[in-house]
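step: validate -> pass
step: tokenize input -> pass
step: predict -> running
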Amino acid sequence: MPRSLTFRAGLAMAGIVLLALTSMLGSIVIAETASGDAAAINQAGALRMQAYRLLATRARPDSAERLPDRLAELDRSLASPVITERLPDDPQHPLTRQYQAVAEQWREQLRPLMQTPAATAPADVAARVGDFVDQVDRLVGQLQREAESRIQLLRLFQGVILFLTLGLVFLAMYKLAAGVMPPLRDLLQVVERARHGDFSGRTRYTAGDELGLLSRTINQMNENLSQMYGRLEERVAAKTAELQRSNESLGLLYQAARRLNGAPPGDARYRHVLAQLAAVTGLGPITLCLAQADAEQAYLRLSTRAEDCPDFCRAPDCVPCLDDHDDTPSPWVYRVAVSEADRHYGVLLIQHPPHSPPEPWQRDLADTIAGLIATSISLAQGYAEQRRLALMDERAVIARELHDSLAQSLSYLKIQVARLQALVRAQAPAADTEAVLDELREGLNAAYRQLRELLSTFRLKMSGPGLEAALEETVREFTRRGELSIRLDYRLDHCPLSPNEQMHVLQIVREALSNVLHHARASRCEVHLATDTHGQVTVSVDDDGIGLGERTDQPGHYGTTIMRERAAGLNGRLEVFEPAPGGTTVRLHFTPQMRRDTPATTLPGDAE
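step: predict -> pass
step: emit ->
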């Protein structure tokens, strides 16, 4: 198995460091061995000078006493460690042999000759000294060659070390360029692709070093990331589909709630909701069967199929479908009861593929749609019941109005007719008969007027904009009917009234204006509507007419009885009085239903 990159890099660095240390140590050793060469050369060169000085001393008779000192000095110089320590141990070495030749010539020839000055001629002595000097020159030259050989050795050593170092560096660079850079570039390319979301890249370098381990790790990481990314995309797709399905379900529920709100059973909107349910769930056909409670046969069947009849239908025997305790008519039908508050309206039948029952979200959606259908049917029935009760209340109001006005007038007329009949039979004076006829005529006129007012009251409608617009129309109507200036001051914009409260207020104002128009002889009238600080509504009709006088309780005048009954219907009170400046004031006080059903809160408004 190949060595690791760390080991190879360390080995190259160790080799370079080792060569550097070897070069430095070799240089130090060679420099140390050559440190005495110069001194030895100088010392050997000094032998020549000493030999010539010794020759001069011998030739001068007056210097004979210094000759031994010169001889001893040359002996010391020749035997100096400066020279002897530079001699190799090999006796056959040229330097050793040359030194032995110089020493032997000195001891055996020149020194004995110097010690017997009279025995030898000066020319012979000078020739011997010249030979000795020549030997010394050769010794110095040999020392110089030895020194130069060490320098050459140092140069050769340094060159070899430098060559080895450069070779090792080039080898390391080659290994780096050939064995490290290509897989590293390949690895960087794979990492760059992974950084941009592409996990399909793989490296081909699988050696046993660190790069191989890193390559295998990145390959495995990319493989794992690819699998995780694939699973994540699948989960995102599933979540997206689930969110889309939830959005479609919410849209279906919203549309169903809007379409079915109060829609009567059998309306086309039911079929549309069933078609939407089939489209969202992917199930079907879907059939809605509606029946009365405990009935054995459905009175209405709606289906997403064209013929409105599913394959499993056994009509008119609808008990298997309607009864929750019985098994479903088919194993591939999911049944949902259409019921609300223990009231059963029918059943919703959803066919599904064999061996593939509806999923929980499909069942929940079907249950919710069934609940909306039940709520819609319940609301439709509630609206019908409210209309029926409203019709009964309206008939009761008509009966009360007829009883309190026209019935009393007719009863009064009946009594007058009986009196007239008695007078005719008794042949009473014409004056008495005329008086009864006048009362009959006046009663008929009053009854006719009451009938017209009742017809106007029963035909009265509340316009779309509300009470203020109806009051404005009423003011314009009564202004046209008489020479009367009427001003409306409406300050109930912040206080909404129920339709029943608006109708009673409008009728009381109309009755008060009718009394002003027919009896008050007024030229100006004001109608005020406002609230006080406690949220109580005050309706006031003021005129500048002749006042009440003694006619408050006379039948047929001012309609106070009817107005008081309407005030009682509002849980309020009605006041009819003459203010100090004159005229008549009709004032109604009541608390709106909305204020009675909620905690008391101070409302902005004018206190009239």
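step: describe -> The first strand starts at residue 286 and ends at 290.
step: cleanup -> pass
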